[in-house]
Amino acid sequence: MKKFKFTIRGNDYDVQILNIEDDSAEIEVNGSTYQVEIHKEVKTTKTPKLTRPTVVPTAESDKAKTAKPTERKGAGVVKAPLPGTIIELKVKVGDAVKIGDTILIMEAMKMENNIKADKSGKITAISVNNGDSVLEGDTLVEIGE
């Protein structure tokens, strides 16, 4: 499997790991085969694990797939495309927006990202404030008729 060269107290050793099963390994040291026990050390990680909620397609996205281009679609939501921090809100409830208008600016991966409206309408709800941290898929803004 793997070959290593060790020097211990001036002596050279050619070590080859032949087989590993559970907590024992078969190794060859300078042509002699040995069965050795492996003592596993449990290491604690300092980095916390992020758990994200699973993103479930909304009913609005299902309607959008089946709707005809001439039909008006109902309320839509703008979701966070990736985890980050809200830097600046560019709209308030009641503002009219068109497709492509910047709704807010969010910092993600040390870059400022303009989050734009994906439909025209009026802002009916804003779910975030300046300085809020969001995860991917979190609802940021709702746009209605």
What this model shows, in words?
The chain is mainly β and 145 residues long. It folds into two domains: 2-37, no CATH class; 74-144, RNA polymerase II/Efflux pump adaptor protein, barrel-sandwich hybrid domain (OB fold (Dihydrolipoamide Acetyltransferase, E2P)), CATH 2.40.50.100. Helix content is 6%, strand content 48%. It is built from one helix and twelve strands, in the order ββββαββββββββ. It has one helix at residues 59-66, and strands at 2-8, 11-21, 24-29, 32-37, 76-79, 84-89, 96-97, 102-108, 111-116, 121-126, 133-134, 139-144. The chain has a four-stranded antiparallel sheet with strand order 1-2-3-4, with no helix packed on it. Strand 8 and strand 9 (111-116) form a beta hairpin.
Radius of gyration: 28 Å
How many domains?
2
CATH topology of the largest domain: OB fold (Dihydrolipoamide Acetyltransferase, E2P)
Q: Count all strands and give the number.
A: 12
What percent of the residues sit in helical stretches (DSSP H or I)?
under 10%
